[in-house]
Amino acid sequence: MNRTREPELILASRPTVDGAGVRLRRGVGHDRRLISRFDPFLLLDDIHSTDPDDYLAGFPWHPHRGIETVTYVLRGEVAHGDSLGNHGVIGSGDVQWMTAGGGIVHQEMPRRFRGDMRGLQLWVNLPASRKMMPPRYRSVAAGSVPECRLEGGSIVRVIAGRCNGCEGPVADIVRSPEYLEVAVPPGGEFTHPTAPGHTVFAYTLEGEGLFGPGSSRQTPADHVVLYGAGDLVTVRGGPGGVRFLLFAGAPLREPVAWRGPIVMNTEEELDLAFREYRSGTFLKSSPHP
Ligand code: FE
């Protein structure tokens, strides 16, 4: 018998400045008291602006260790380069995922885009046993992200995981999270099974919707909906429909020590990482760019 999850927490994403002065909204990660409730997810950033001055400063060369990141550009272009020698442009609809593992140094620079630029970055924590794994990087072109139409009219882009027989191309994230982009038409209902015990949350992009059968208030855009226990998610589209991202993953239940772009298990590991970065011994795989 299915038990439908109800929202446990609904929070507006918070205006934040990061990188070299990028104005963005932080959906997950602005309140460290909530880390364990979003486990294994650490951070969700949303760059959304019609003004290039909000994002052109970008995220110049910086290190990461201990995490994986998934960057999804809905509209716009982000140029990137990293210490493994990868470089290129992530364009509209493209997905890039990166395992920082034991260490990577990269830059992520949004380019001037006419109109409404929007890009999201998710951080997924690595378990202690894999934090120092070799770094790796993949990119997926928009056309390789399957789109499926469900009964009831919802359209789902499957970035990672499965939905209705469609399998997402982002398959190598250690924690095997599910990452869906869902559009529910006005009054339509989206239903999706999620493994019991997994952390599940949604992030609203456009429109508004009801995120649980017991919800009476529409949740508007730019909100995080963290679900409570259960094994099924249902979302009903509001009068103009609703578009959102849905994330699910198994929690790690390990201590989190987090400083800036580096997430380890202990303060000593953080100190070591920053010491190594300062002294030029941070990268284990290739020279500093
Ligand atoms: Fe980064």
- Radius of gyration, in angstroms, nearest whole number: 18 Å
Task: Give the helix/strand class.
Answer: mainly beta
Coarse shape: globular
Mind summarizing the main beta sheet? 8 strands, antiparallel
Taking the alpha carbons of the first and last residues, their distance comes to 54 Å
The total count of strands amounts to 23
Q: Encode the helix/strand succession as letters.
A: EEEHEEEEEEEEEEEEEEEEEEEEH
- Architecture (CATH level 2) name of the largest domain: Sandwich
The ligands found in this model are:
fe (iii) ion
Q: What share of the residues does DSSP label as strand, in percent?
A: over 45%
Number of domains: 2
Per CATH, the superfamily of the largest domain is Jelly Rolls
Separate helix tally: 2
Point out poorly predicted stretches.
none
**CATH fold-level label of the largest domain:** Jelly Rolls
What can you see in these coordinates?
The chain has 289 residues and is mainly β. The protein folds into 2 domains: 129 residues, Sandwich (Jelly Rolls); 110 residues, Jelly Rolls (Sandwich). Helices cover 6% and strands 49% of the residues. Strands 1, 13, 14, 17, 18, 19, 20 and 21 form an 8-stranded antiparallel beta sheet that branches. β2 and β3 form a beta hairpin. The longest helix has 13 residues. The chain is globular, with a radius of gyration of 18 Å. Fe (iii) ion (FE) binds next to β5 and β10.
Question: Notable features of this structure?
Answer:
289 residues; mainly beta; Jelly Rolls; 2 domains; seven-stranded antiparallel β-sheet; 49% strand; binds fe (iii) ion
